[in-house]
Amino acid sequence: MDIKTWDGDKVTISIDYDKCNGNGACVEICPASVYELQNNKSVPVHIDECIECCACVENCPQQAIKHSSC
Length: 70
Hints:
Layout: E1 3-7, E2 12-16, H1 25-29, E3 36-38, E4 41-43, H2 55-59, E5 65-67
Antiparallel strand pairs: 1-2, 2-5, 3-4
């Protein structure tokens, strides 16, 4: 399993890179612009901007995102 984890000031986000297909749903749905695609994988580059809405988790078609607030 290729799971990457990022720790922010308020939240922890993990992305299963075996599941992430880089379709960008999290990038487009996130109201705080937390995510970017890098090498066709999602990366929460602005994790400290997260507003804990859980839209990324709810809208990931691959269910690749785990979020400490969701």
